[in-house]
Each structure stands twice: as structure tokens, then as C-alpha cells.
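Quick one - first record:
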Amino acid sequence: MDAKLARIVQFFASYPIHRHKREPWQVLIATLLSHRTKDEVTHVAADRLFKRFSSIDELATADVTEIAELIKPVGFYRVKAVKIKAIAEILKNKYNGEVPCDIDELLKLPGVGRKTANCVIAFGFEQPSLPVDTHVHRISNRLGIVHTSRPEETETQLKCLIPKEYWIKLNPAMVHFGKSICRPIRPLCETCKLRDVCDYGQQNI
């Protein structure tokens, strides 16, 4: 890594964050719930769902209407309820109730994209993986680490640039940083500790 990238990586590697520990299947379902939904709403809905159904087997036999009521008011909760039920049935019938620790297999599940699959690997199995959401994509481009137009491209480039031991920490650190400092609109560049190595920050002095 060059000096700029090393500085940025170390900043996020030491960023103070706390993640709620969940089982792989819970990470999968919670991440699915989080799509287009605020974190605080997602956490409450996920906890309510997992309190009612404590395993994939239980969730596979659940009524879709009950799932929908439990996860309400997450965005598109009725559509997500159908997908959650379908995922649970597939995991029960095809994978013996276990979540596969494999990106390609996870991507076969209904409603699961690369970010969700990477979240399961990273936060469910605690294996090196790099989920790229809108925050990671935006911040990486603003800093000038990458110059990409799509999250998938950002993921590919970041994995080439950053050593594996930092991958898991990068997403939650950047998400928090993206909500508090490097916001989508009116980022707080004047208080940002990375401004001196940030392409966007230097252009907006």
C-alpha cells in the first residue's frame, strides 16, 4: 500500500465500532431487512422476528402473514416476508438448515445480492469478506482510493488494494463514518480527520 492508502486503512481499522453478534442465518435475514430501511427500524424488527422464531427450521414453517407483521414497518415488508420464508425453506431443504459459507451459493438465494452475501461471510462466519454498500462506495470514491461507478466495481478494486485482514472492519467503520462525517449531502469536511488525504475534501477547502 502507498502512504495515503495505508493512512486511510489504519484510520478505519482503529475506528471505534460495535456490532451486535448474530448467527449466520440471523445476519442473512437482518441484512435482507435492512435494504432501504433505517438501521434503528431494522434492529427492532429483526430482534422481534428472532425472538419469535429461533431457527431456520422454525422460520421455514412460519406463516408469511405473521412474518410480515413481525418485520413491519421495514421497507417493502410484505415482499421481504415472502423472500424470508422462501430463503428459510431453501436453507432447510437444500442445506440442512445451515447457511452456506460461500458467496456463489448465497447469491442463489432469493433477494440476496453481493452486499448481503458478503455481510453473511464477514459478520456471520467472521471470514474475510468486504461488503460494499452505498457508504463504502461513496467514501472510497471521495477519498480517491478508487474511481468507480458501481459498488461491484468498488468491491473488486478494494479487494485488490487492501489486505484481507482489514476487510471485515472496513464496512462497519465506513458506514458509521458515512453517517456521522462523510454524509451523502453536506459532508462535514471541516472536521474530517482524513481531509488532507481526501480528493473530495481537498477540492472543497
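second record:
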Amino acid sequence: MEKSTHDSVLSIKPLIKILLVDDREDNLISIEAVLENNGFNFVKARSGRQALKILLTEQDFSLILMDVQMPDMNGFETASMIYEREKLRHIPIIFITAFDFGEDTIHKGYQAGAVDYISKPINPILLKAKVSVFVELYKKNHQLMAQEQKLIAINNELEERVKHRTEELTRKNAELETKNRELKKINSDLDNFVYAASHDLKGPMANLEGLISILFRKVSDKIDASDIQLFELINHSVAKFNRTIKDLTEITKVQKDLEEEREQVFFKQIVSDIKSDITHMIEESDAQIEEDYQVQELVYAKKNIRSILYNLLTNAIKYRNPKQRVRIQIRTYRDGDDIVLRVADNGLGIHPDQIPKLFGMFKRLHTHVEGSGIGLYIVKRIIENNQGSIKVESLPNQGTTFTVNFGANSNVVDEKIQQHFAH
């Protein structure tokens, strides 16, 4: 595996440069001779001024070995001027001296910037040991600096990636918003078209029904049984067409009903009203309806909640199992902050593979019962348009359970509703 650029930077060994400062050439040569087998690079200066001149252009020294006693400018003065420059303060200085200085002089040297002293004549072992300490320290600092540079580079790279991703997400979001607006407009246009078309077709269909009725009255005594049957088929087709027009109108009204004002509605009251409307269905099927309202109310468009419950209850009765009494359970409860409605029956049920088809427009999985196939489509659309969800569990001849999660949004009573109930 290839090393990354950051790892390559860390793997580069630092160049060890040592500045030797002494007014005597033989001293410079002897120091270099002691240290030359360690692979160091040496730069030599014969005076303090020459050392300062070198340091003006080169600051990457690992160590300075400097004689204290030099004419014109001694080691202490040179060190003081070196440490006046911010870029040179990191370079350690070891003073080399042939004199046995007192404590005051040694203290002066440390104040000037010295980190250590070596006495003449130089002990080669001691010189190597002291130089090696500062060389290792330089290497460690180099590694730390390289690591810092690596982290900076990684951080910059991450920031660049985040910036690029953010710009990309912003662009994608803008595109999605544009597409969403376009789709909403297309949806609205289609709804309006279907609504207008279905509305405009009602008149011609009513006229057609009237004309067929008039025609039948005029010719009924002149035609035989087969012709009468033909009229019945025509009337059946017209009635079916009228139901389709009505269904299309209902579908487009779902979107328009979203604009209806939400209010505080009570499950028990809605179910009671529905039971009154379908009394004949309940009596005919001898349906047993069990109700358990752990949550009594929610905030919703009253017409929409009625549509949901009406479709679920009438479907439970229509698609009953003829071999047993109809039993329907209606239950409400909380799931965290969400309000949940559960409607379960013991009817015909469907195979789990058919569940995805259940909410399709004009989809009917049991054809022996009259129906349009749009009821559950409308239910799903109402629920999802209100940020809720609906789940189905079913097995053949074991019944079906619909679980509607209205979401936390159904708990929110807006200001208008609060004011209404306050009065």
C-alpha cells in the first residue's frame, strides 16, 4: 500500500545543521573532527559578527557551539543579539570556554541564552553526549512540527471536503425544491383538470340518462325481452360511469380538503355518527363493534377523520367472513407522543403479498363485493398528507388490522382552537 503525502512528510529525516563559532580555525577543525562521524552538517564562523551574518539567511540550525572569548564581540554579546530575533530563539547555544568562570559570569551566560557549557580542553565523549541530547530534542521537535503540519493539512482537506459537500447539498436541495414546486404545480393542475372534467361530465351524463329513459318509454311496448335487456345493460354502464365520475371527484377533493381548518374532534362521537349512517349494514351483518378509547380526542380536519373511520369500518363489514359473526375492534392509544388508531376485524383478510396493492387507486382484491376501489387510496392519501402513516397486517380468513399513526402533530391545538374552547 502506498504511503499518503502526509505520512511521507513525517518519514523525512531532518537535516542536522550545527553552527560552529570560534575565532581560531584549529578549534573549529577539532570540534568538527569529534562530531563528523554522526552525519551532521557544519557551518563555521570565525567571529560573532560572521555568525550573525550567517543567521540572517539561515535559521534552520539544530544547535550552535560558540566560543565565549572572541575579539570584537564575545559569545555572550553574540548570543544576546541572536535571541533578540524571534526566528532564532528556538536554537540552543552551548558555550565553549577555556576559563573557569564564577557563578555571576555563568549566570550572565544563561541570561544571554546559553543552555549549557563545555570547558576546554574539550572532552570528546562529553561533547558528543551533550550534542546528542540537543540533536535528539531537535528531532523530536521536528516530528512534532511535522505532525502539526499533517494535522493542519488534514483539517484543511476536511474543511474543503465539507465545503464541497455543503455546496453540493445546497445545489441538490435547490434542485429538489424546484422539482418539488414543479411536481406540486403539475399535481394541482391534474387535480383541477380531473375535478373540472368530472364536474363537466355530470351534465352530459344526466342528459344521456334522461334521453335513454325517454327512449325506453317510447319503444318499450314495441321491443322484445332481448332489447329490454340491452337497455338494462346500457343503464348499468351509465350508472357505473357516474360512480367513476363521483370517485374521481372524491379523489381530487382530498387535496382540497387539506386546506380545511383543523379542530378538536372526538373519536367516540365520530364513530357514533358513522354507526348511525350505516345502521342497515351493521344490522344486516349482525356486526359486533368493540370500542376502547384510551385517547379520547385529536386535532384534525373533522371531515378527514370521518372519512378514515368510515372507510375502515364499512370495509370491515363488507369484506366479512360469512362463516362467523363480524367482530370489529376500534382502539386508540399513545405511542410516545403520537396518537394511534387501531381498527381490527375478523374478516376475509388477504395474503401478505397483496398488501402493497391494497392502497392502489381502483384496486379491488375481493371482487365479489360492490366497490370502487378508491376508499383505501383516499384514506392513505389523507393520512400521509397530514404527516401520518398507516400500516396493515392481514392473513387470509384471519382478518385485517389497520394501524394509523397520526403523529405528534395531532396533539397540537392551534391558537384559534384554544380561543374557541376558552370561550
